[in-house]
Design goal:
- Helix content is 39%, strand content 29%.
- The strands form two sheets. The protein has a nine-stranded antiparallel beta sheet. It has a four-stranded antiparallel beta sheet with strand order 1-2-3-4, with helices on one face.
- The termini are far apart.
């Protein structure tokens, strides 16, 4: 049987690399690079060497296939990004008359365009499934996952919102609950319960508020419906200002204490939680089309809270 070996050259078997020192008939003497010698059968070593070469060739073939597959995947991703870029909707920015009162209230003509941009950005940044809804008779847009938004319960759905008024543009996260036994409080219950039980959700709330200087504002039905408190982030926790008919009380809270406060807020009465910021009219106009990216960035920071409300 022919063999590939030559005296003085280096080969390999399952034990490691070796140098052939002598070949006589079917026997060969080898010296391992790491030390030690062996008198062995030429045919056995030839089969081992050929198997190793076959395995190397197979590995090279598989690596070329893997690289080709990755190259095709990267090309598809570049193509998809290019298509998304070409298909990206546009919003030209707010105009001065968008903040002027109309016969039926404030209504800006670019609402649909902004809604499409924000839904597009959230699908790109936080996963597919986001759409937008124009709130009838209000200067407001809701952005949410399609499979968890009921247009008939828009006042209570967990959603990302943007609204315009004579004071400017407000945007962020909203969730509400109805009074009594009316349908629509499931998102509120999920959020406050998970906020009370999960430190990661508490940290997500604190992080978003701290990074983007957001305010948490609470409304509830007492003698009448109105603002009952607001919270800001501070070192070590939160500062809550509670508003009563007679006075404003300020107290410091941990994330758990704030969550417990929300659990107990206005039992069986309508309540609303808004987490976001307001931009004055002048700043909104100055931002131009870039305001859509600013809003989307805030939305992205609030996805954990949104999902805590909207996920079963």
């Amino acid at each position: 049987m022919s063999h590939p070996f030559e005296v003085g050259k280096t080969y390999r078997n399952r034990m490691g690399e070796y140098v052939v020192e002598d070949i006589e008939g079917d026997r060969m003497k080898i010296r391992y690079v790491g030390g030690g010698t062996l008198l062995t059968d030429v045919n056995i070593q030839a089969r081992i060497w050929e198997n190793i070469q076959f395995e190397k060739q197979l590995a090279r073939t598989e690596e070329r296939q893997r690289q080709a597959q990755e190259a095709r995947k990267a090309a598809r991703q570049r193509s998809a990004r290019a298509r998304r870029t070409r298909a990206r909707p546009t919003f030209g920015g707010f105009e001065k008359n968008d903040f002027e009162a109309k016969t039926r209230g404030i209504a800006w003509k670019g609402r649909k365009d902004l809604g499409r941009v924000l839904a597009y950005e959230m699908n790109r940044r936080a996963g597919e499934g986001f759409e937008h809804w124009i709130v009838p008779y209000q200067s407001e847009i809701h952005v949410a996952r399609k499979d968890h938004y009921d247009p008939d319960l828009r006042e209570y759905n967990a959603s990302l919102f943007v609204s315009a008024s004579e004071d400017g543009v407000s945007y962020g996260f909203h969730v509400g609950k109805p009074g009594g036994k009316a349908k629509g409080g499931e998102d509120w219950s999920r959020l406050v319960n998970r906020l009370a039980e999960d430190e990661q959700i508490q940290q997500a709330l604190r992080s978003a508020m701290e990074r983007h200087q957001l305010h948490l504002v609470l409304y509830a039905m007492d003698v009448k419906y109105g603002q009952v408190g607001q919270a800001v982030v501070q070192e070590g926790g939160f500062q809550l200002e509670e508003e009563t008919a007679d006075q404003t009380l300020t107290r410091e809270m941990t994330g758990k204490e704030l969550a417990d406060y929300l659990v107990d807020l206005a039992p069986n009465k309508r309540s609303d939680l808004y987490l976001g910021r307001q931009v004055p009219v002048a700043d909104a106009l100055k931002a131009g089309s870039g305001i859509s990216d600013e809003i989307a960035t805030i939305y992205e920071s609030l996805v954990a809270l949104y999902d805590a409300s909207a996920s079963e």
